Every structure is written in C-alpha cells, then in structure tokens.
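Example record

One chain of 165 residues, shown exactly as stored in the release files.
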Amino acid sequence: MTDLSASTRRLQLVAEELGVPMEVHRFPEGTKTAAQAARAVGCEVAAIVKSLVFVVDGEPVVALVPGDRRLDPDRLARAAGGREARRATLDEVREATGFAAGGTAPFGFPRPLRVFADPLLARHDPVWVAAGTPDTVFPLSVADLLRVSGAVQAEIAERDQPFGT
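Predicted structure tokens for this chain:
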C-alpha cells in the first residue's frame, strides 16, 4: 500500500528492523474500536488487541488487552508497582506513543514505555493489532507481540465477564 499514513510507514520501518512481518490491512470504515476492527477483519472480538494508554502514578504505560475484555485499572496499577491508574488523555496518548488513540500500535514508540499484556491474549494466535491509525490493522503472532512490545505479562483485564456480554 502506498497510501499509508506517516505513522503507519514509521511503524513498518520499526517492524522491519525488529524482524516482524507486517501485512497492513486498511479499512476506510474504521477500526477504532475492537468491535469495528473485528467486523472489518472478520474475526472474533477477542482476537483484537486493544493498546490502551494509562498513566500510573504519573508514568504513561501501555496495556494490551483482548478486545472482549475491559482493562482493570487497579490491576494495572499493581502490575506497574503503582497506586493508581487513570486513562491517558488524547494528548497524552499521542505524546507518549506517537500514535492517535484508536490507532495506537503496541510498539514503535518514540521513547521507551513499559508495556503490560494480559495472558488472555493467548486465546487467539495470531491476533490483530493497530498499525498506527484508526483504520489500519495487521496480524501478529502472540510471541512476536510480546517480543517486540517488551510486554510484561500480568492479569490486567477484568476476569468476571467478557466486555459486551
């Protein structure tokens, strides 16, 4: 694809350096939410990875959770060794990751960020992740996702009931 955004092209360069295959799929109708992405791709919502940016005790961190689950901010705070977590503002997301909310890739940030991944992601392999914009995604093996993001695995998603059920 030659009509990809600068964010996606930048991510492609990082992926190439890390030895990660990146077959970008663009959906003009949008992939901003997990449900939208799943409909566009034709997969279960659980196979979509949400890259969520939160601020734990003043530090931006990225939480990777399955699309069918909500992040538990208290679990994330504990996993990060902090006391409280709050959702980052749209400006904080862009500043920390270099990507817009809704298109935040799980790696390729302008500076190192701590990343936490819920083990429930392993229910699907490959999974689909944002490719830097709210209308691009690409498939990635869970092993590669963990490797390139440097994610620490921690139970950070709500366990009671899947999102939307």
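Notes: The helical segments are 6-18, 34-41, 73-79, 90-97, 142-149.
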